[in-house]
């Protein structure tokens, strides 16, 4: 453990975390204790949630001296920015001190004890467009169902992860609304499995993840969360992330220039996926963990909402919608 670790947060964060999903709520108790203890100069209180290895690596005498030195240099934290989730056990909080900005990286073990905390120089996330400037098409053929999508946690499971804030999960359903035939025990039972996935716009392939096997339905693989995936950079600050592709189906490689509508792979069930579906989001950098999500408006589509169909232009669907591309005129 580096001697530059620190464990300060600010009480304003506690209110801002209310209503966040489980990936953030895990940190609430730890954060609250850090805030109260650090702001009161209570070093023993800050250390209360350390796991054994952390406590041994950063003993009380060193942590006491360190907190005093940091407080003298930067003062107290007055504001925390929106947390950046790295994975299920790691989160980074940009922290605004009275005299500077630093990043606090928090690592929890499976028992929600602090396994690591770093106090790091602040890394700006960069500019994030409010919405896409690139003209984007739906990344598939035929009609798909929006299982997750929208601007609230109720509509969108991803909403509290900054890079996936406006992500979509698409599945294919039958007339009864089911995503599979038979008992759904095999990936081949699912209507989405093996469907062609398309580039939503022209761009450069910056990253490709392959070699992740498809899950048995109901089993998930958080160790390789995106599964097989393709990243396409359309412009400097707009990158499409296409995830959970079928094992062995990827059609492109890093450095390829792709065209709108080009097949990049097949829909699969790889990664942190419980059934075959397409995950699609847009972010401001190809560096996955540093991205901020960008709201997606598709250029043109046929919307089926509550059984009523119409053509929509420059449209962002939400959970419960059915969408399909508008056929090209010959």
Short description:
The chain has 330 residues and is an alpha+beta fold.
Per-chain topology:
Blueprint lengths: L11 H5 L5 H4 L2 H12 L3 H5 L4 H6 L2 H15 L2 E4 L3 E4 L2 E8 L2 E9 L5 E8 L22 E5 L19 E4 L24 E3 L4 E7 L18 E8 L2 E8 L11 E2 L4 E4 L11 E6 L9 E2 L3 E8 L2 E8 L6 E3 L6
Antiparallel strand pairs: 1-3, 2-3, 3-4, 4-5, 6-7, 6-18, 7-14, 8-13, 9-10, 9-12, 10-11, 11-14, 14-15, 16-17, 16-18
Detailed description of the structure:
It is a single chain. The chain is of the alpha+beta class and 330 residues long. It contains six helices and 18 strands. It has two domains: 12-121, Nuclear Transport Factor 2, Chain: A; 144-324, Glucose Permease (Domain IIA), CATH 2.70.70. It has helices at residues 12-16, 22-25, 28-39, 43-47, 52-57, 60-74; strands spanning 77-80, 84-87, 90-97, 100-108, 114-121, 144-148, 168-171, 196-198, 203-209, 228-235, 238-245, 257-258, 263-266, 278-283, 293-294, 298-305, 308-315, 322-324. The strands form three sheets. Strands 6, 7, 9, 10, 11, 12, 14, 15, 16, 17 and 18 form an eleven-stranded antiparallel sheet that branches. Strands 1, 2, 3, 4 and 5 form a five-stranded antiparallel sheet that branches. The protein has a two-stranded antiparallel ribbon with strand order 8-13. A hairpin with a 2-residue loop joins β10 and β11. The longest helix has 15 residues, at 60-74. The radius of gyration is 22 Å and the shape is elongated. The termini are far apart. Residues 1-21 have low confidence and may be disordered.
């Amino acid at each position: 453990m580096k001697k530059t670790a620190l464990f300060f947060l600010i009480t304003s964060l506690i209110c801002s975390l209310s209503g966040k999903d489980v990936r953030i709520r895990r940190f609430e108790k730890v954060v609250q204790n850090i805030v109260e203890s650090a702001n009161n100069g209570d070093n023993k209180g800050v250390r209360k949630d350390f796991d054994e290895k952390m406590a041994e690596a950063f003993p009380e005498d060193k942590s006491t001296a360190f907190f005093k030195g940091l407080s003298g240099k930067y003062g107290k934290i007055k504001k925390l920015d929106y947390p950046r989730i790295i994975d299920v056990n790691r989160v980074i909080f940009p922290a605004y001190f009275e005299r500077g900005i630093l990043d606090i990286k928090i690592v929890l073990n499976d028992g929600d004890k602090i396994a690591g905390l770093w106090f790091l120089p602040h890394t700006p996330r960069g500019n994030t467009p409010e919405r896409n400037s690139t003209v984007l098409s739906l990344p598939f053929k035929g009609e798909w169902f929006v299982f997750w999508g929208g601007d609230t946690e109720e509509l969108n499971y991803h909403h509290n992860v900054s890079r996936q804030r406006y992500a979509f999960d698409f599945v294919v359903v039958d007339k009864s609304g089911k995503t599979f035939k038979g008992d759904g025990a095999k990936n081949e039972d699912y209507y989405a499995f093996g469907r062609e996935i398309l580039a939503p716009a022209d761009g450069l392939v910056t990253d490709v993840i392959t070699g992740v096997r498809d899950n048995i339905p109901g089993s998930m693989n958080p160790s390789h969360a995106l599964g097989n995936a393709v990243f396409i950079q359309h412009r400097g600050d707009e990158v499409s992330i296409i995830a959970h592709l079928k094992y062995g189906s990827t059609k492109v490689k890093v450095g390829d220039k792709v065209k709108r509508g080009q097949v990049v792979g097949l829909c699969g069930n790889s990664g942190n996926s419980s059934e075959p579906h397409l995950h699609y989001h847009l972010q401001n950098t190809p560096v996955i963990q540093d991205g901020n999500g960008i709201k997606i408006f598709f250029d043109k589509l046929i919307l089926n909402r509550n059984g009523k169909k119409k053509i929509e232009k420059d449209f962002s669907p939400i959970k419960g919608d059915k969408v399909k591309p508008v056929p090209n005129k010959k």
